[in-house]
Amino acid sequence: MSGALSYGILLAQISRWQRLGDGLHRGRGRMDLADFLPLAIVLVVAAVVIFVVVQVRKRNDMSQRCNDPNKLFRELSLIHNLDRSSQKLLRQLADSAQLQQPAEVFLRPGIFAAQLAVDLRDQEEAYQSLQQRLFS
Length: 136
What we know:
The chain is an all-alpha fold. Helices cover 58% and strands 0% of the residues. The chain has seven helices and no strands. The chain is rod-shaped, with a radius of gyration of 34 Å. The mean pLDDT is 80.
């Protein structure tokens, strides 16, 4: 008897269960511009990220020929397995020697033997080890 009674109570509640989510949704015909704002923000951020990734990959693509002295310097640094600090030292040496292209430091061992500028003398040992690494 209690089973039949509880079944009857549940049937009496069906109308409430059917109307449970009515207050959650607006009418389907209305769309505001503000509804698209989060989607637009996500699309703009995704486009910026894709643009940056493509530019970085194009910059580091060593398979394409180009006339870029900085890219040549990066490629020679990769071939010689130089880390960032070594690359920075070589760039400073090229600037100090007033070379037109920074990649010339890979071709001129005499630059290392020449008198270092005053601001580069504190790293003389690092320059000597780089010279031995590159030209030995």
